[in-house]
Amino acid sequence: FNPKAQPGQRLGKPHYAAYILHPQGKPQAIDLGEAESIDKEVKKFRKYLRNQVPVTQLTLSAKKLDELVMKRVRQLLGDTNNILLSPDATLNLVPFEALVDENDQYLVENYNFTYLTSGRDLLRLQIKYPSQQPPLVLADPLYKKPGEEDISQLFSELSFPPLEGTIKEAQAIQELLDIPNERVKTKKQATEKALKQVKSPSFLHIATHGFFLDPKESPLGETNVFDNPLLRSGLVFAGVEPRQSGGDDRIMTAYETTLLNLLGTKLVVLSACDTAVGDITSGEGIYGLRRALVIAGSESQVISLWKVSDTATKDLMVGYYKNLKAGQGRSQALHEIQRQMLQGELKGEDGRLYDHPYYWASFIPSGDWTPMEF
Questions:
Q1: What's the structural domain count of the chain?
Q2: Backbone φ and ψ of 325, nearest 5°
Q3: Is 307 helix (H, G, I), strand (E, B) or coil?
Q4: Is residue 65 part of a domain?
Q5: Which domain holds residue 323?
Q6: Among the four residues 154, 167, 228, 272, which has the most C-beta atoms within 10 Å?
């Protein structure tokens, strides 16, 4: 829609536009071009990231998408290196940190990005609430084995293998931040009920499987139950009672997440798969766990854009909390550890390099970007 065009010529093919707002001065706008070509490149770029294609091949796509979306925007940014980004439609699924500029540098090498579900977040984040509980860590849930009574039939086709790195992740975070044993729930204790009982913990770290069911590809088939996109994404916990008895079903949907008491929670980290993904609605951001955590009241979130290596995730998360403890901002702390992985300064225990964006670019910071106290 072009409001400046002549009557009868205002409607055409959908375009992306960028609006750049500085602390002072008038907003600036750029027409980025037809959405179809940008969406096509986004799809290719995400496929290359998830499949760990060779860096040379990935770089070509990263540079193409940068030229389409960010190159002209950068020319209007001035000397800032901190960008608050509220993407629309499929751009919600892009880790802008992994785009490559005209100097063959990843954008993470020069910028700290913070993602917002909408521009309204800037107003919401000005209001601060106190936390009411110490930190809570949920990790390494004891998933039910095949053949046991499973969750509701609607989810019976889904399977979740153990995440071996999550117990080490929880233990390392507990030791680093001196978290009491009773505030670290693992195995049978890592339940949906334990999460539902939270009352504004200072921060919440969840290391488990996340999921998003695309209605077009869902193994569950067509059902009206899943018309609500907040019911098609969620987190998986240790199974205790089947839903039929009125208990928890070990699936915490995004809809249920909106009902959590996180007002005053400074940070929620979802160290899981596909936790930032949800239904795309142009002009409304993305519906899923990301939006659910904002609705529940959390100040900031660290969430993932594709399925990740649990070993690399453990190393990234431990480094992230070290940076936070050292006083870095919530977004800067993540980007610093991503830069270390990219530059080969952080490696796996077996010496494996994490320099491919598959390892370091999956997680993005959302919400409040300022430092937090421990």
A1: 2
A2: -65, -30
A3: coil
A4: yes
A5: 136-367
A6: 272
Same domain, 111 and 205: no
Q: Are residues 178 and 243 in the same domain?
A: yes
As given in the structure block, the two tokens for residue 340 are: 């270390």
pLDDT in tens, the chain (374 residues): 566 666 666 567 899 999 999 888 889 999 999 999 999 999 999 999 999 999 999 999 999 999 999 999 999 998 899 999 999 888 988 999 999 999 999 999 999 999 998 888 888 888 899 999 999 999 988 876 544 444 445 555 566 777 777 889 999 999 999 999 999 999 999 999 999 999 999 999 998 887 777 665 554 555 555 566 777 778 888 763 444 444 566 788 888 999 999 999 999 999 876 554 554 544 444 557 888 999 999 999 998 888 778 788 889 999 999 999 999 999 999 999 999 999 999 998 888 899 999 999 999 999 999 999 87
| Residue 63 shares a structural domain with residue 156 | no
Encoded amino acid at 109, one letter: E
Reduced to 3 states (helix: H, G, I; strand: E, B; else coil), residue 93 is: helix
Identify the CATH number of the domain in which residue 354 sits: 3.40.50
The rounded distance, in Å, linking the Cα atoms of 268 and 284 is 22
Statement to judge: residues 197 and 309 lie in one domain: yes
Give whole-number Cα distances, 81 to 109, 110, 288, 321, 357, in Å: 10, 6, 29, 22, 20
106 and 237 assigned to the same domain: no
State pTM to two decimals.
0.87
